[in-house]
Design a protein that fits this description.
phosphoprotein; DnaJ_domain; Helix Hairpins; 3 domains; mainly alpha; Serine Threonine Protein Phosphatase 5, Tetratricopeptide repeat
Length: 469
């Protein structure tokens, strides 16, 4: 009678959804009468409402041990198994209910749910092997609707989120499990995996080691720990070789590090960028550009890789590409330094689209006034129209064009003011100089000086000398 009184009070609290008090009174009923199946069944139902499916399972199993014909006991055991992700055990319980009550609608529905859960598990296993992690996450989300207490499904989902680069979501799932069970090796592994993929390798190793303490045979944690330690060592050795100026060794070490784990996107992006820096030091600029491009493919927010590639583009006179990279950098981080980089690249791009007067004269950008004069003398004589008067019309036209360009180049580079404006990328038209009205002959006469007519005469086959009359 005392046990029944406790049960009645438990039922009242259960009806009011005060499951903690209901649990207390059902426990008192069990203590007073430990061989009553319904008391265990009621307490199992209360624990299920509290989300404590593992404890509820123990009570449900005890209820059917005491009474194998207790339908609600079998239903609750099956529901606990299902909630914990054990679909096969759940199916056996629901089949037992149908043996006792062939038309039980709840058992029929739950049996369908158990089979659906098994199918989601099967698909997820296949997709994980295919590395279709998005589909695995989808399957686990559906599975967790039937099995909200299954840590195994949550861990698989978290692992796939980590492999998809969705680290905050993955960490949140793993942390929730660790709050309930701090010794869960799978959750420790996933926490370590997130840190590992976020390039926090030292912290990641700590979690992998902890996971292996809990489960020494944990294959994934063992492999990840080995990769993390190898990556850390190779990267540090590469950095040391670079600092010591041993670029060839640094290149080899970074290359070896890149072969350790292709899935570690963030670390590999840094390794590619580091190797790009090595290549730029070795003046292998196209290789450096390729490495930086690979780094950006892995992490399109990696500012350092954009800056390194942009500098290589500048060094190889690919100014349009350099401007594009510096624009991307400046849009992301609007600093004075980045603004200046962009401005410099834009100036060089503008300069590259004009005639290269240094190239036309065949002199270096640091050529002296004397060198510029000598170069003009040589090129003007080489391309003077009189020298090619006997050539075809096409050649005469081409040489006349070159003669004019040589005159333009000399006019600009021999005038300090104009040369300064040209070197800085400014418009020469602002100086009042219109190259369309330019007369190369006047420059030629002024340079060579003397009255009379200048002419070329042949002194032998292919030889010319000039004179002033």
């Amino acid at each position: 009678r005392e046990a029944e009184s406790f049960k009645e009070q438990g039922n009242a609290y259960y009806a009011k959804k005060d499951y903690n008090e209901a649990y207390n009174y059902y426990t008192k009923a069990i203590d007073a009468c430990p061989n009553n199946a319904s008391y265990y069944g009621n307490r199992a139902a209360t624990l299920m409402m509290l989300g404590k499916f593992r404890e509820a399972l123990g009570d449900a199993q005890q209820s059917v041990r005491l009474d194998d014909t207790f339908v609600r006991g079998h239903l609750r055991e099956g529901k606990c198994h299902l909630s914990l992700g054990n679909a096969m055990a759940a199916a056996r319980c629901f089949q037992r209910v149908l043996e006792l009550d062939r038309t039980n609608p709840q058992a029929q529905q739950e049996l369908t749910n158990a089979n659906t859960l098994l199918e989601y598990e099967r698909i997820a296993e296949i997709d994980f092997e295919k590395r279709d992690f998005r589909k695995v996450v989808f399957c686990m989300d559906r599975a967790l609707e039937f099995a909200p207490g299954c840590h195994r499904f949550k861990i698989l989902k978290a692992e796939c989120l980590a492999l998809l680069g969705r680290y905050p979501e993955a960490q949140s799932v793993a942390s929730d499990i660790l709050r309930l069970d701090s010794t869960n090796a799978d959750a420790l592994y996933v926490r370590g995996l997130c840190l590992y993929y976020e390039d926090c390798i030292e912290k990641a190793v700590q979690f992998f080691v902890q996971a292996l303490r809990m489960a020494p045979d944990h294959e994934k944690a063992c492999l990840a720990c080995r990769n993390a330690k190898a990556l850390k060592a190779k990267k540090e050795d590469g950095n040391k070789a670079f600092k010591e100026g041993n670029y060839k060794l640094a290149y080899e070490l970074y290359t070896e590090a890149l072969g350790i784990d292709p899935n570690n996107i963030k670390t590999n992006a840094k390794l590619y960028c580091n190797r790009g820096t090595v290549n730029s030091k070795l003046r292998k600029l196209e290789d450096a550009i390729e490495d930086c491009t690979n780094a950006i493919k892995l992490d399109d927010t990696y500012i350092k890789a954009y800056l390194r590639r942009a500098q290589c583009y500048m060094d190889t006179e690919q100014y349009e590409d350099a401007v594009r990279d510096y624009e991307k950098v400046y849009q992301t981080e609007k600093t004075k330094e980045h603004k200046q980089f962009l401005k410099n690249a834009q100036v060089e791009l503008k300069k590259s689209k004009r005639k290269d007067y240094y190239k036309i004269l065949g002199v270096d950008k640091n050529a002296s006034e004397d060198e510029i004069k000598k170069a003009y003398r040589k090129r003007a004589l080489m391309h003077h129209p009189d020298r090619h008067s006997g050539a075809s019309a096409e050649i005469q036209k081409e040489e006349e064009k070159k003669f004019k360009e040589v005159g333009e180049a000399f006019t600009i580079l021999s005038d300090p003011k104009k040369k300064a404006r040209y070197d800085s990328g400014q418009d020469l038209e602002e100086d009042g100089m219109n190259m369309g009205d330019f007369d190369a002959n006047n420059i030629f006469k002024a340079f060579f000086g003397g009255p009379g007519n200048f002419s070329f005469e042949a002194s032998g086959p292919g030889n010319f000398f000039f004179q002033f009359g």
